[in-house]
Amino acid sequence: MIITKKSLPRRTFLRGMGVAIGLPFMESMVPAMPLPQDSSAAKKPPVRLMFLYYPNGIDMENWNPSYTGPLGELPRILKPLEPFRDDVLMLGNLTHNWARVLLDGPGDHGRCSANYLTGAHVLKTDKSIFVNGPMSMDQVIASRIGRETRLPSLEIGMEDPRQSGNCDSGYSCAYTNNLAWKSQTQPMPPILDPRMLFERLFGSSADLTPEQREQQRRVRTSILDFVKESTNALAKDLGPTDRRKLDEYLTAIRSIEVQIERAAKDTTPVPAGMAKPAGSPADFAEHFKLLTDMVTVAFQADLTRVVTFLVTREGTSRPYREIGISDGHHPLTHHGGKRDQLAKVTQINEYHLSNFASWVSRLAALREGNGRLLDNLMLVYGAGLSDGNRHFHDDLPTVIVGRGGGSLKTGRRLVFRKETPFSNLHLSLMDRMGVEAESFGDSSGRLSGLDTV
Amino acid sequence: MQARGATLAPGILFDCDMGRDIDTTLALCMLAGLGRGRVIAVGVSNSSLDAAAFCDALTRFYGSAGSLPIGLAEDGHKLENSQMLKAAMDLRNPDGQPTLRTTIRSVLDTGDPPVVFRNALLTQQDMQGIAVLAGPASNFARLLALASARDIIAAKVRLLIMAAGAFDASVDPRIKLDTAAARRVLADWPSPIVAVGLEAGKAAPYPGGSIESDFGPTSNHPVGAVYRVYREKQSEPSIPAQSILAALYATNAEADYFKLSQPGTIEVSPEGRTTFRASANGKHRHLILDPAQTDAVTKAFVALATARPSAGRGGPARN
Fold first, then answer.
1. ipTM score of complex
2. N or C: which end of chain A has fewer CB within 10 A?
């Protein structure tokens, strides 16, 4: 007879009045003597994948190090990631050929965002959108493993809800404003409103009776109030470490609520050129933190394993007054070699990276199982253009942060041969998410050396 | 109805065993700088970085400005001797600067040939592309194996010209180096194929003497440098012109001096021997040289291969 300690199910939720809060991985979820068939799942947290997409290219002079192999001093833009160098894998020479002009003429911005996760040709149109690939790689993964989590995938963004009209030289806004594609004609629009994202993660009042909904409205201060009873009941059975972890986790959720409430009251005028979704903070850093804090919770509670984040959209003319830049991002990237304009582009690139690095620092502090949450993540930070001035689609700036559950040897810069399809990365990441495929997009194989030194 | 691309200047894929003979060098010179066609991608089927660097440098010399992708086989056969290529790469301008420049320093600066070819073909209108093979068929066989590439070839390439095979009793080493690849390409390549055999190249040799007179010992033209090394080991100045003939056909297929066999099928024996069998539905032909036209052919060779890059399109002074 096999004796096992009664363990907490991984899929435990704190429930109450239309709310369901998933829990982070806890010691109590590991059986003392796991059954053989449960052992690997219980011991090994799942791997999660996220793409963070940045538009208009990067100042490559300040992105690419002069060396390959072990990461040493990082170039200016990547400097904020230096404390986490051992968790960083830089990739060089990856190319999205279908984003190039080929026979389609101008419209690199429109092509490259729609092509980024599909690896496919994008029909040049602002009406009957069509991406000539079955679905984006995140959706391939979601379709295979999405049933294992409450949300098959999560799509988020920070600006511009338009899904029609011409956003770049005849390319529909649906191309520039979506990363994820469920089919050739069906994009998955990102959630832009932080409150909508919060409700997606923790349930909504859709299944409540009108009386319950009214009661919820009247008494609402925090969703934590609605789950108080189940929280107390659960806490009684937890050891001190798990109790502390639960407390920290719920405090983080409360902090997100406070941020959302503050954002909803934010009446700061929106600068010209910036499409700020309702209820979101006008400040880039605050907005980014709010969304990524929610992604952190989604990862901790294993609510989803695939996230795409269109940080800002291709061709955005958003200014960055937060850092003293009143010019639009896109016009600045067409600097034509003017040093002062290029310097501002570099500054924007650094600002994006520093916000990302702040999030990484928060992730690095979170434990999961016997290691860190970061050990089980693959955060792909990148862009669909390298040189935004000349619209180059080769050597796309790509950094993976996180160790993919031990499937990535980080702390290195790997450079592949010229013209290596970006889709080869997709195929390699799909492998690591447990999704096997012979090919994807315009792949020619898998990237070699991601897991070997 | 004729496909749109068939009336445009062809975009040429050139795959070669660069460095093994001067024939291939001259063929690339003709295509890169002087022919009516435009080279859109170059593949190297041996695994020599020197060969890839030379192809890059030579196409830059003729004005590509470094925009031409170079594919290099990682698992190709070894190039025994790259002296000819090195001689050209060592050339200096009067100001002491290198005549030929390349940015290829490692294999990372080159691409995988099938990917390079596929990507280049996607820039072409339907039926605009012509593929020229001047070496073993290894890279083109790998191209056929790449997902969706066969459909792209079928749509974009109107003709494959193979400077490979022999339609007399001999065996072409280019076939022998990779018979499996030659069979695969002959069997699966979707467009018509014209083969230029060893015997055709021998029947219309390139007059090496013209290189000596056009590019003397002090010339810093790469053709002169390559030829000087070639000549050191040859008793005859003439150069068998199998690849050159293929290049000329790629740019002047309609010229009077070319004749083709009837349609048929080329088969490859395990020893690398090629046999042509006529058949009405065959998609292969081989080039037949009319002895009466040999002079015209060699004049066309010289006119195309020895011209210098036009001003602003390349040449010794470019980076």
1. 0.92
2. N
CATH number of the domain enclosing B169 = 3.90.245.10
Interface contact flag, B119 A97, Cβ < 8 Å: yes
User: How many domains, in total, are found in chain A?
Assistant: 1
Q: Tell me, yes or no, if the pTM score tops 0.90.
A: yes
Q: Is residue A36 part of a domain?
A: no
Q: Which residues of B touch A421 (CB under 8 A)?
A: 115
Residue B226 lies in a domain: yes
CB A77 within 8 A of CB A63: yes
Closest residue of B to A417, CA-based? B108
In a domain, A313, yes or no: yes
Structural domain containing residue B120: 11-305
Mean pLDDT, each 10-residue run in order, chain A (453 residues): 64 86 87 58 84 98 97 98 98 98 96 97 94 95 95 94 92 96 96 90 70 66 86 91 91 89 75 66 92 96 96 95 96 96 98 98 95 97 98 98 98 98 98 96 97 79
Question: What gap in Å lies between CA A171 and CA A202, rounded to an integer?
Answer: 36
The answer to whether residues A181 and A136 touch, using CB atoms and an 8 Å cutoff, is yes
Residues 6 or more apart whose CB falls under 8 angstroms from that of A338 comprise: none
What are the distances in angstroms from CA A120 to CA A98, A113, A343? 6, 11, 33
Please count the structural domains in chain B: 1
CATH of the domain at A52: 3.40.720.10
Question: What is the residue range of A427's domain?
Answer: 24-29+42-196+276-432
B146–A contact, CB cutoff 8 A: yes
